[in-house]
Model the fold of this input.
Amino acid sequence: MNTVIIRTVVVAMAALCTSGAGAKDLPKGPGSSFSPPPGAEVREEGPRKLPYYKIPNVPKAAEAYYANDNLHIIAQVQDPEAVRKNPTDGGALTWTFTDQGTDLKRINGIGQDACSYFFPDMKHLVFTSIRDHLDKPIGNWSDPRDYPQGGELYKADMDGGHLQRLTHNDAYDAEISVSPDGKWIVFGRQTNGSMDLWRMRADGSDEQQITFTKDWDEGRPMFLPDSQTIMFRAWKYEDYGKIRPTPMTVFTIKLDGTGLTPRTPPDTGMNWSSYPAPDGRHFTAVRVVENNNWEVFLYDMERPNAPPERLTWNAKFDGLDSISPDGRKLLFARATGDGFMSDLYTFVMDISSLGIGPEHYTGKIPSRPATKAEPGW
Done:
């Protein structure tokens, strides 16, 4: 596994519920915001020996994203109050918490939730939920053939108050994120079995479709630091269920639907769960290595045809990666159970040594494509 334990800090249980900084003698990169909480078992992994830890006190969770304070996190957390098809099925609701495992808050307590994100003002957040469509089949957030129809987008205060519903339709709306300047929301919408990207203003007005494809499924749109360029991954419907893992390409596109640019070369297999770094040049995504092992890699848009660098080194699933706004921490979900993607928990890795923070943003997004965009866009 190429993993070693650095140390475990033993403290009283009361200290686990504080929000103080981690032990001062834990390893950090230059200017790192990586601060493991008291009691956390800190390990290091891979050739770079990047330190990481599991966030304590937080139940099983999937996608997780940092707020602008590089401390608070929003995620879809397994919650007993979520509705389920069957009692043994999973069900998530939107929670926020810190990477210290403190300040846990349930934002929504009705229905079942999926993707969520913070606004940069640290006053608002957005999330996807079926809370207003409990009369419809619950569906499956992971299966495009059974996405929850009636998944809607919501905006709320940081404690879940002043809830505002942003979309009103019977389609699947999800995979939401907010631009760094706070002016735009981008999301995915599935209509008539076709998944495309859409945008709206922060108040829910001015909905406009960005992509128009019948042969591709686009998802996980995320803004780059210019608030005008969107990164996303896409796969072909003709490949889904026939080739495993499903081949996926990472693209960028402008907010107005122009400038489509492939960022990963063809025939490189699955490039999933892409997330742009705040330097405007790098991004992380998941690739599959030997034995169907899903791992997080770092890509360079200035060198689009160069092999990406592997960041996680684990015999089980790692994925659903995201980077803190200061570029110094990586969030990822790791399977801790026996099955594939079983018992997912949220981990934090110190990536300050990678040098991908906002201080390295030049004001320009690399324009070099990995290949030509295929017909059909």
Observations:
- The two ends are 41 Å apart (CA to CA).
